[in-house]
Amino acid sequence: MSGQREPTAATGPASTGRVAAERAVLRLARPYLGRLVGAGLLAAATEFAGLALMATATWLLMSAAGQPPLDRLTVAIVAVRALAISRGVFRYTERLAGHDAVLRMITDVRARVFATLAARRGATHRSGDVLSRLVSDVEAVQDLLLRVLVPASAAAVVGVLAVAVAALISVPAAGALTVGLLVAGVALPALATAVTRRSAAEVAPLRGALATDAIDLTHGAADLAAFGATEGALRAAEQRAHRLARLERRLAATGFAVDAAGVLTAGATAAAVVLAALAADVSGVLVGVLAVGALAAVEVTLALVTAARQWTQLRPGLTRVADLLDAEPQTAPPATGRTDLAGPHELRFVDVTVRYRAGAAPALDGVSLDLPAGRRIAVVGPSGAGKSTLAAVLTGTVRPASGRVTLDGHDLSAYAEEALPRAVGGLLAEAYVFHATVRENLLLGRPAAGEEELTAATAAAGLLDWVQAQPAGWDTVVGEEGGQLSGGQRQRLALARALLAAPAVLVLDEPTEGLDPTAADAVLASALAFTPAGHSVLLITHRLSGLAELDEIVVLDGGRVIQRGRHAELVAAPGWYRDQWLLQTAAERGYLALAP
Amino acid sequence: MSRRPFDPRLLRRVPAARGDLAVLALLGVLAAGLIVAQATALASVLATAIDGRLDRPALAGFVVTVAARSALVWAQGTISARVAATVKATLRADLLGAVGRHGPGWVAGQRAGEIATLAGRGLDALDAYFTGYLPQLVLSVTVPLAVLARVVFADWSSAVIIALTLPLIPVFGALLGWQAQAATERQWRRLALLGGHFLDMVAGLPTLRAFGRARGQTDVVRRMADGHRVATMKTLRIAFLSALVLELVATLSVALVAVPVGIRLLSGGLALQTALLVLLLTPEAYLPLRAAGSRFHASMEGLTALDEALTLSAAPATPRAAEGAATPDARAEIRFEAVTVAYERTTALRDVTLTIRPGERIAIIGPSGAGKSTLLGLLLGFVAPTSGRITVDGVDLATVDTDAWRRQLAWVPQRAHLFAASLADNIRLGAADTPADVLAAAVHDAALDDVVAGLPDGLDTVLGERGHGLSSGQRQRVALARAFLRAAPVVLLDEPTARLDTAAEAVVLDATRRLVAGRTAVLVAHRPALLADADRILRVEDGRVTELTPEPTGKVTR
Fold first, then answer.
1. What is the complex's ipTM, to 2 decimals?
2. Which residues pair with B536 in a beta bridge?
3. Cα distance from B5 to chain A (closest Cα, Å)?
4. pLDDT over 70 (residue A334)
5. Are B335 and B354 in contact (CB under 8 A)?
6. Rounded CA separation A180/A272 (Å)
7. What is the pTM of this model?
8. Membrane-crossing residues (chain B) (predicted)?
């Protein structure tokens, strides 16, 4: 089934109507339309086989009652057997075909969502919640096709066929059936949609508030207990839970009324068909066939009620996926800009100011830096001083509001986004460790790296002993978000990856975070020693130990440079650096002096 | 991962649901009766219609049974939803109540997230279990029995065949289940790995971008997603095959009943009405068993949540001193006598003996993870000593009324939790009826005035989840305001200026100095300014506490 030429939903411009999201999804489905239509037809065949089975069996029994010669029944007997077996087989193939088509399409959707996100320039701040929502949104696309479109189209096909067959027997009976099918397939689903939508609108805020209560009571348990506020907070949460329960009960009464109406519709349709058929003097056997068939047909059509509910629940997710894919049509040029990134580089900050929000205090305020090839600089300062913003500007994820950042005299933005990391990059804040092997995580830094290079970089980060002690060695899987590793090992792995990447301007943002002081000193020293002489280093750290060899230390506070110079000079002069240095060494010297 | 379809603990723990569950069972019996009645009426209508006549009473009976079934569907749905709502509300309250009962020591760490998710949205998965699976489970018992009972009266030989073939459904279901389970579970584990991959990639995008690999990774995502598809299809083939086998078993069973009925009908040995009744009823007997089986999978998530909630909320609480127990005055000597605190994996404090005299300001320093926060946790009653004891005015802290004792403490944690409530409510935590002027004084003492002035609704501004909207420095000042409001004789501060920039630190330090003035204070600190104000400095390291002479090396005057 090639199906590439099947008519699709209108893809014309404008009309951002109520089904825009569905339309976007169907556009994505176009390459798989043949498979999807096939699955829909198989689903229709399944339902129709079930209906025909009941109708034929009834005909068979009622005819048999007239005690005709057996051969008049042979065809029907064979048909019943065939229908009984084929229904199961149809269902099996339909489910496989449907899932196969939809999963193929989801592969596409995932790749496109990822490509769209990857093409975004600049930082994207997303919490874990938003990310997992994105993943389930993509799954909503799958559900739309499997649980809404396929059963809906099957129901529509079976409904039309049933009416057509009924019309051959008796037009009035077919009329009665049509009314019943329209109620079951159009009116009730519409009602279900409205009810579900209203319920969701009422329930969602309360559920959200309850989720917040739960967070406050658990994550804030210590604060509540210390201030004797646990009881009050518990009572409030309990009241909200009961309010939600009352609302849910009330809404259920409305929601299930639709299902009840469905049962009533099926029975009433069958009764009406019997009345209509008898009034039209249809033969007795066929009256039975019509009645049983009508009952079955309406029940098939009632699947649309469930589909409508599903659809209503899926809509928000579908809209988000459609918006994501629409908002950024893949126009972002993949590799424009300068790519001449060989050789040593000179990086300069001239009077750089960064402001995240208009009116807010600047995160960087008139910062100038000079980083010629081979120079090694440390940027220190308290939290919130602007250190990480500096790194973000350096790697092109944040653009300065004023001032210039240049690489070899060209503005940083002139370089191709994909190419820049080869020259400027390294270990950035919140370096992510992938749920993959140690080797795969490292090769991200430099895909072409050989075993020797891996070994050298890992040794410099102090992780080699650990890797060699693992039974699987380089192929050790590190677990979700590096969960199988300790915080220190994760940090060393991220550092090894940055060292392996070896950009000419190496940025190290808190490379020894999570390591104890002795290990931190050793790792910092070996990482600096590992960096080739012609490469420059920009080290961001809150620890002042091990900075004596660096060419310059820049102290940031409140986004401004408040001190700069070599370690020896800064320690000699009063100011933040000396205070902090004395404090840290005192803490660590005391620590050493008191160690047994 | 095999779970019983019904957790009997539910009846004990949620007594309010018992009545509704009983009604649900009764409705199941009624529903079975109505299915039988409807088939009987329809058989009668059709048997008469063969002569072109209309059996009015039978048709009326058919319509009435249909109407009754419709009402029953409504009642079943409404009541099962009611059970779901009741159970969820009760379990939520129980779960959160357990948090209150056990205290912050129990809920710390990973468990906080687990419980928050479970009590929040996790329990909503029970809707599918109660409204989808449970009524079906009832029907899978009542309907086959009712059908059998009816068919015995109409045609006992058919009833025998039904009775013999009916058990095939659960037997085959179980056989197929065992057969497929091992294979399926292995598959699902792989699936989870591959499914997680997309999330992993999206979460790691900033890192991919940092190495210039973001775009290049799209192909990897596609390849992995395709691998996911292939693996899923393999699993589904097995899962669908067992559904197919069950359907064929049901179909063949119906055929086994129908063939002799047809033959006897042909030979005139059976009335048409009886034959029609058997034909209409027989499939109904097999249906609910299969439906319950297929819905069981969909309600697994709910059952898992139910099990977790019942288990977590039933965890025995550490015994606490009865209310009304003696409460020592905190303006007395506090002594640690050979206190050891051992957690599951580590020992946080070993054999600590120390005395805190009234009015003393004690600074505690030491590397992170050395046990500094545990020291404060002991005083707050969040942590109990594994051995040794803490006394206040000679009274063992383990025997005092915890709430009354805590009322004499003001605590400023490392990172205060701010609640999704107004700023005023956040400050007067645990003291909702604080007069406005007292609140204003606390705001002023904590140097929060400018923060309040900058907020759209001042003190009435509602903060976001976890206090979203305030900076770290501002949050720390809110915590200080709480402590000021408490006006307690003992203050406990846990690195109040960690992670603050210099400007924010200066403001918080100023306020901290005002707070500790004239009170007993224990402060975990690194900052020179705080150390300078301390009467004594203690070093905590590897769980041991050493008295550090306040010696110039550690002291920096500013």
1. 0.82
2. B362
3. 23
4. no
5. yes
6. 9
7. 0.79
8. 21-46, 58-75, 133-153, 159-180, 238-259
